[in-house]
Specification:
Elements: H1 2-33, H2 41-52, E1 64-65, E2 69-70, H3 72-82, H4 91-94, E3 99-101, E4 111-115, E5 123-130, E6 133-136, E7 145-148, H5 152-157, E8 158-163
Helix pairs in contact: 2-3
């Protein structure tokens, strides 16, 4: 009799522990996803939609408008500006703007920053679009496009992500 009660008690304790663990983990995940310092979905989607509207535009060094084309930081600057947010114009300043967020906390609208070379001008920025993708203006001869952060090149070059909208 004692062993049967003990066995049931042990099973109940294990079950309660498992349920508690699942609830606590799902609660943590929910809180991380609903972080109050991040952009609201509407704000984030507007920035991403604005940047997306320029896909196919030619790269232009120093460009920050649809009529002239975009360099990487010009696209980021323009998309935020069109939605009422101030972002620095230059890549090195965009790499320090807002606050840092880890790769696993990326949200649409965050600025992604890559180290593409060791030179002082070796930084590249884009706008995280969700689902592991970002929108950017790559380089001369290229056009604004969406790419995956899982591409080996970009994955190895990502150095930080910045959250502007709080």
């Amino acid at each position: 009799m004692y062993s049967r009660t003990s066995s049931r008690l042990s099973s109940c304790v294990v079950l309660l522990f498992a349920v508690g663990l699942v609830l606590s983990l799902s609660g943590c995940g929910f809180l991380m996803h609903q972080e109050s310092s991040g952009p609201t979905p509407a704000q984030a989607q507007r920035v991403v939609k604005t940047a997306s509207s320029q896909m196919g535009k030619k790269y232009r060094l120093g460009g920050a408008s649809p009529s002239k084309g975009f360099d990487c930081s010009g696209l980021v600057y323009w998309a935020y500006q069109k939605n009422g947010f101030k972002v620095p114009r230059v890549t090195k300043d965009q790499a320090r703007a807002g606050r840092a967020v880890s790769r696993n906390q990326l949200r649409p609208g965050d600025i992604v920053v890559f180290r593409t070379s060791r030179s002082p001008r070796g930084l590249h920025t884009g706008i995280y679009a969700g689902d592991g993708t970002f929108i950017h203006s790559p380089r001369a001869g290229q056009r604004v496009r969406k790419e995956s952060l899982e591409i080996k090149y970009w994955k190895s070059k990502l150095i930080t992500a910045r959250r502007i909208i709080r």
